[in-house]
Design brief:
The complex is a heterotrimer of chains A (351), B (295) and C (304).
Chain A lengths: L25 H32 L5 H5 L12 H32 L4 H20 L5 H34 L4 H15 L6 H26 L2 H8 L5 H28 L4 H7 L23 H9 L4 H32 L4
Helix pairs in contact in A: 1-12, 3-7, 3-9, 3-11, 4-5, 6-7, 6-10, 7-9, 7-10, 8-9, 9-12, 11-12
Chain B lengths: L8 H8 L24 E12 L2 E12 L3 E5 L6 H8 L9 E9 L2 E2 L7 H7 E4 L10 H11 L6 H10 L3 H4 L12 H13 L5 E5 L7 H14 L4 E5 L3 H7 L2 E8 L7 E9 H6 L4 H7 L5
Parallel strand pairs in B: 2-10, 3-8, 3-9, 6-7, 7-8
Antiparallel strand pairs in B: 1-2, 1-4, 4-5, 9-10
Chain C lengths: L15 H38 L2 H6 L3 E2 L4 E2 L2 H32 L2 H15 L3 H18 L11 H25 L3 H9 L4 H12 L1 H17 L2 H7 L16 H10 L7 H35 L1
Antiparallel strand pairs in C: 1-2
The chains are: A mainly alpha (351), B alpha/beta (295), C mainly alpha (304).
Chain lengths: 351, 295, 304
């Protein structure tokens, strides 16, 4: 920093001081070096991590590792059961989380933003029609239904906006809940309460709940990225709001929504904690079925669980197997991210 | 009141002070001839107030819009002309917290009556937006969408007829399956007009349809409007006074008021035949605006 | 259509199918509320019986956690969770903040665009991988510099370091967003009076972005408290109330994993105990998150 104060008084300087030559500023250099150092250390740690994993894992990584099922002997143990388990888990998670997540995102982004006065407007319109019906002497089931509808819409005008706001706050809070808590929920809800087995099914459902907030948040961003003018253009042609949203806005947002979903799934596929809580760590040697309809009878196998089981043992051989498993898991993650990036680049539009 | 504009000082000033664009096809700003057919009242706004939340945006608007005419809505920024336009097809319904007081009649029916289907209103009263907003799909799908939601069968003949009407057929006939975003801005806007007339509206509302376009495309759209008015009623919001003078038969001048009470809302200062508004405005504010002293 | 007898506007139509669809969409949005309710309800219903056997005060203040002897004093678990989060913060705050300052103030755009995704790679790393890294590399390194004993496998320090690495990208990315949101005019004003980059970064940008940076740090700490797999692998499964970071320790999350790995029968005190500590974990992270929300809100009111 410039420490030399200009000689006072300012103004009419008798002689013009020439511009100063560049000079070293040690404090600035140190600051710059520290910031650069932070980045370098972080990236260095990443390189170290990847190097260590490759060094331990490449040795035992071969085709047999991919095709062999789980085993108690380190020489014969393979990753196949874990891969199959993760595949079924992802299928279940996607099947449950996508419809709910996309629907919730659509609702929150497009239909929940009505103000109280607007909802009241709708309610009064319904009430006027009820009065018209009554004035016309209509009786019976239709009028009763209408009366209920009017009452419900007045109620909703009052509670709707705060409810919608609470839902939004709730979703962002859910995204910050530790994943192991979802495991406790899954254990209590699916295993203890519903009575499912400690199986791929209860594990997949638990992961679906875990990724739901992430999918909703990402999908809302994708929907928000589609300009409202598209929807207005559709409505100006005599489309209903639902037609405009479902046939124009959502199709335009789908690539973004899928990108977000893939990224959410790449979080789910590496999660071990909630699965351990729901299903323990399976030691069975049977090959898990990849038929999703048998998921409730299949013990919980998954890549991160298998890695944990191996890494948790004292023998170096198993630690190396864990590294091999990590390499496979990372390759899958890289592939998923590549698909997400491809989708984003291929279909992203400049509006 | 001078009948011919060539000897009108106002007009001279106005043309000279214009943006210098060569599109002034007529030497004077004389309004185009009205097409044949009836010119009965289509819209009648009575004591119309409009609110965004608590803020008033329009006050006491009383105006009539006539069939087979082009009505231009002009005025400075923030005068509520676009808001008024969007009241005519209940587009404002879509904005949370807005409210309409007073009455707008469409063929003597209350447009805002509780039992009127707002979806049908928008089908009957089409709209073209400021920025071309084609759907991110092919040209054909852009046209099909409106027909499908209205139960009209989208045949090839129909698509051709609509595109011809919008003077776009020759440019796109070989690339109907191409992405609409690949078209130029002017072509996109004509596609949006084609899309609007494909659902057989009676009125077309245009919200500054040329403000995002170059002069050549603007000219094409203006020519198109002149043809369309033989079959449709057109209401256009424009910032460009030459454009209002060139294309419209009737002009409504909106201005900002209420500043002395700490409010800011639009009012209708004056409306009438375009020729009269531009040559002999009755309202001082109109005169100032047209001669460029304000706005 | 060129007749004055224009057709009447259609009467408002019911669209029951659309209304039903909207109800379905709303129901989907409601699922998220049910999830929250589900978490609270299951934690309480499954954890409440635990407190019939164990006094709440003894649970919260007891310093011995020995489930085999029916001694449930949660302090060892809680202090282990907090200590590891503290070590992680000591690692991650300088690294994350330094990276954020470098990326937002020093790095050229192409450099920034290369480094950011690499850091995000670290953020997306499954935590089990970091646990492995702790066992395989960090612990041996700590042994070789003599910080922990040759034969010792587990330590809070090792776990804290990898959790720190895990939350570094989170802190750097959120802090960088906050710093980049500081208006350019503020920077230019400082440069205009002859300030150097260090002064601009340290005395203009950082204070202006402070609440955003604090939110990033608090969220990082919350993540560290809830972190499970890395700490289970690296810190061990031995409950231990100790102030020495090189000791092995068991965190709340590691205890839940340890019980879940075995067969805890529903209804047993052990089964109930994981829900009891789950309540504690949920409350602790909730409080930390609420603090973060506070900071974010303050930051927003300043610049948005």
């Amino acid at each position: 920093m410039a420490t030399d104060a200009p000689s006072l008084p300012l103004g009419d300087a008798a002689e013009v001081r020439p511009l100063r030559k560049k000079r070293p500023r040690p404090a600035d250099a140190a600051f710059h070096a520290a910031a650069l150092g932070a980045v370098t250390i972080t990236m260095g740690a990443l390189v170290w991590l990847l190097g260590a994993i490759l060094a331990s894992g490449l040795g035992s990584l071969d085709w047999a590792f991919i095709t062999d099922p789980v085993s108690t002997s380190a020489e014969r143990a393979g990753f196949n059961s874990a891969l199959r388990g993760s595949l079924v888990l992802m299928l279940i998670t996607i099947t449950v989380a996508i419809p709910i997540g996309f629907a919730a995102a659509t609702y929150l982004e497009k239909f929940a933003a009505l103000s109280r006065s607007q909802l009241e407007g709708n309610a009064y319109a319904r009430q006027r029609r009820l009065h018209e019906m009554e004035a016309a002497g209509a009786t019976g089931f239709g009028v009763t239904l209408k009366r209920l509808e009017v009452r419900a819409s007045f109620l909703w005008a009052r509670i709707g906006p705060p409810v919608n706001r609470a839902v939004e706050v709730n979703i962002s809070n859910l995204a910050a809940v530790p994943s192991i808590i979802y495991g406790l929920l899954g254990l209590a809800l699916f295993v203890s309460f519903v009575g499912l087995q400690k199986s791929l099914l209860s594990g997949g459902l638990t992961l679906a709940i875990l990724v739901l907030p992430i999918i909703i948040i990402a999908s809302r961003e994708a929907i928000r990225a589609v300009p409202v003018s598209i929807e207005q253009g559709a409505m100006a042609l005599g489309a209903t709001r639902w037609q405009a949203v479902s046939r124009q806005t959502i199709p335009a947002a789908i690539p973004g929504m899928l990108t977000g979903t893939i990224l959410a799934m790449s979080r789910a596929i590496g999660e071990a904690a909630p699965l351990i809580v729901v299903g323990g760590v399976a030691f069975g040697t049977q090959t898990p079925s990849i038929n999703p309809t048998e998921a409730n009878d299949t013990p919980l196998f998954a890549m991160p669980l298998q890695i944990f089981d191996w890494a948790d043992r004292p023998q170096q051989d198993f630690l190396d197997l864990a590294a091999s498993g990590i390499i496979v898991l990372l390759v899958v993650l890289v592939l998923m991210n590549a698909v997400a990036i491809f989708l984003r680049n291929k279909f992203s539009r400049r509006w | 009141m001078p009948d011919s504009m060539s000897d009108s000082p106002t007009t001279t000033t106005q043309v000279a002070a214009g943006t210098g664009d060569e599109l002034v096809t007529t030497p004077t700003a004389s309004a185009p001839k009205r097409p044949g057919g009836s010119h009965g009242v289509v819209f009648r706004a009575t004591d119309l107030d409009f609110y965004y939340g608590k803020a008033r945006a329009l006050k006491d608007v009383n105006v009539e819009i006539h069939r087979h005419e082009i009505t231009a809505l002009i005025g400075p920024s923030g005068c509520g002309k676009s808001t008024f336009l969007r009241c005519l097809n209940r587009m404002n319904d879509l904005i949370p917290g807005t409210r309409v007081d007073g009455r707008i009649e469409f063929h003597d029916q209350d447009l805002y009556a509780s039992d009127i289907d707002s979806v049908d209103v928008r089908r009957r009263i089409g709209m073209v937006f400021q920025k071309p907003n084609p759907f991110p799909k092919s040209i054909k799908e852009n046209l099909n969408f409106g027909m499908k939601v209205n139960g009209i069968k989208p045949t090839a003949e129909r698509i051709e007829a609509v595109l011809r009407k919008a003077s776009l057929w020759d440019e796109v006939k070989d690339k109907l399956d191409q992405d609409a975003f690949a078209l130029s801005g002017g072509q996109q806007q004509r596609l949006c007009i084609a899309r609007a007339i494909a659902v057989e509206p009676e009125v077309i509302l245009m919200d500054e349809p040329c403000s995002a376009l170059d002069p050549i495309s603007t000219l094409a759209i203006e020519d198109l409007m002149n043809e369309l008015v033989t079959q449709y009623t057109i209401v256009i919001v424009t910032h460009n006074m030459q454009q209002a003078a060139r294309v419209s038969h009737r002009t409504a001048f909106f201005t900002v008021a209420g500043m002395d009470q700490g409010e800011r809302y639009g009012v209708l200062a004056e409306h009438g035949d375009t020729e009269k508004i531009f040559t002999a405005p009755a309202d001082k504010r109109t005169q100032d605006y047209i001669t460029g002293r304000f706005g | 259509m060129d007749t004055d007898g224009a057709p009447r506007l259609a009467r408002r139509r019911r669209r029951p199918l659309e209304q039903a669809t909207l109800l379905l969409l709303g129901a989907a949005a409601l699922v998220s509320v049910l999830v929250t309710a589900g978490i609270v309800i299951t934690l309480i219903t499954e954890g409440a019986p635990f407190f019939a056997d164990v006094n709440v005060m003894d649970f919260l203040t007891g310093s011995v956690w020995e489930p085999v002897n029916d001694t449930y004093g949660v302090l060892p678990l809680l202090s282990a969770s907090l200590m590891i989060a503290g070590i992680a913060a000591l690692v991650a705050v300088p690294l994350g903040l330094g990276s954020a300052i470098y990326l937002s103030e020093y790095a050229a755009e192409p450099v920034r665009r290369t480094i950011k995704p690499i850091l995000e790679l670290l953020a997306g790393m499954p935590t089990i991988v970091l646990g492995f890294f702790a066992l395989d590399s960090i612990t041996p390194a700590l042994q070789s510099i003599g910080l922990i004993d040759e034969n010792q496998i587990f330590s809070a320090l090792s776990a804290g370091i990898v959790v720190g690495l895990l939350i570094t990208p989170l802190i750097s990315s959120l802090s960088e967003d906050a710093m980049r949101a500081v208006p350019r005019a503020m920077r230019e004003g400082a440069y205009g009076v002859g300030a150097t980059k260090r002064v601009v970064a340290g005395r203009i940008v950082l204070p202006a972005a402070l609440s955003g940076v604090m939110a990033a740090i608090v969220l990082g700490v919350s993540r560290a408290v809830g972190e499970t797999m890395a700490v289970t692998l690296a810190a061990g499964t031995q409950a231990n109330l100790s102030a020495n970071p090189t000791d092995p320790m068991q965190t709340i999350t590691a205890y839940i994993v340890a019980i879940s790995k075995g067969e805890a029968v529903r209804g047993s005190t052990q089964y109930q105990s994981i829900f009891a500590v789950g309540i504690l974990l949920f409350v602790v992270t909730l409080i930390i998150n609420l603090v973060a929300v506070r900071f974010v809100r303050r930051f927003r009111t300043v610049y948005h």
